[in-house]
C-alpha cells in the first residue's frame, strides 16, 4: 500500500523524489559487492520507466510529450525551427513584461493584469518545452565532447609511451655498442684507449731514457 502511494505521488508530482532503491547503492554496499546488479537494457519491444513515466524504445514515442497532451495551447506551428521560435518567444516575453509593468503602473487592480500574467506563463511554458526538446541534441554533443577528450588523452598516453620506448631503445643500443670513455674531453672506444695507452707508454720510456744520468753528459742532438 505504501509503495502504491509513493508511486502515485511520484506520478503526480512535478518534482518527483528519486526511486527508493537508490539507498541500496551506498559506498559500503558497492565496495563489499552487496549492491544489486544493474538491470538489463530493455529490448525494443519493452519500455522503461523514468520519474513515474513510461517511455518506449521506438522512435515514434517522443521523449518530451507534446503540449497537447498537457492541455497547453500551442503557439508555434507543427513544423518549426527551435532557434527561430525561441527568439520570437523571447521577444514576445519582453513585450508581455513591459505591458505588465505598464498595467501595474496605471492600475494594479485592472483585470488585464491576470490576463497578462497568464500570457507570460504560457510563453514560458513554450520556451521550456522547446528547450527540453533540444536535450537529446545537448546530450549527444556532450557525449561527443567527452569521447573527443578521451581520444585526446589516449593519444597523449600513446605518445608518452612511444617516447619512453625510444629512450629505452637508445639506452639499449648504447649499452650494446663498444664501451666508450672520455680522454682529454674526447670520446674514444676501447681500441682507441689501448692505442692511446701504448703511445703513452712509449713516450714515458723515451722520457725516462732522456732523463737517465748515463745520458746527461752525452750530446744527443
TrEMBL record:
Keywords: Activator, Nucleus, Transcription, Transcription regulation. Residues 1-12 have a biased composition (Polar residues). SUPFAM superfamilies: Mediator hinge subcomplex-like. Residues 1-46 are annotated as: Disordered. It is found in: Nucleus. GO terms for molecular function: transcription coregulator activity. GO terms for cellular component: core mediator complex; mediator complex. Belongs to the Mediator complex subunit 7 family. Component of the Mediator complex, a coactivator involved in the regulated transcription of nearly all RNA polymerase II-dependent genes. Mediator functions as a bridge to convey information from gene-specific regulatory proteins to the basal RNA polymerase II transcription machinery. Component of the Mediator complex. This is Mediator of RNA polymerase II transcription subunit 7. It comes from Dimorphilus gyrociliatus. The lineage of its organism: Eukaryota, Metazoa, Spiralia, Lophotrochozoa, Annelida.
